[in-house]
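User: Can you help me understand a structure? I only have the sequence.
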Amino acid sequence: MVGLLEAREASARERVEVLREEAARAAAALEAGEVELDRRVITREELVDALAASAAESTAATEAEGGEEVAPAALHGPVSAPVPGVIVPPWREELPASVLSLDNQRILNVLQDRPGGESMRAKEIAVALGLDTSVAAKVEGVRSKAKRLGERGWLPTQASGKFSAGRRLVAVPADGSSA
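Assistant: Let's start by predicting it. Here is the structure, written out as tokens:
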């Protein structure tokens, strides 16, 4: 009887070891997938930035040649209908926040609603937006959007990597999309 129990215990130990190895392989595959996703998100955002810079250079060259300036609304449709993934325009006093995508408006709104104008890290913003912060790509997406908003003057950024609302009020629809 003891021999039978020892055999069953050995079999159970082997099965547990096999399952541990499978779990380790799955964890490694998940990590590799998240890294690939992060790289692709960053690549897409860099491409959008490069295209925006190219368009700005093209517009400047056309203006320098004496050509007529084409209004951004004529190029990209109505300004009041933001589309996710569109270029973040540089902030100007007369430019409403409604020109931004809903995701960017939500980020600005979270920072604006912060008590005392306290600054936040990207992960804190992601939590406030209700995103799953255990997925690194979600937090990195928020960080990338917030950095772009900072680069374009929509919100102040700090050397510590935190973001704050600054001086602008933001009106955002209640049914915003996910950041």
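Now, to help you interpret it: The longest helix spans residues 2-64. The chain has a mean pLDDT of 78. Let me know which part you'd like to focus on.
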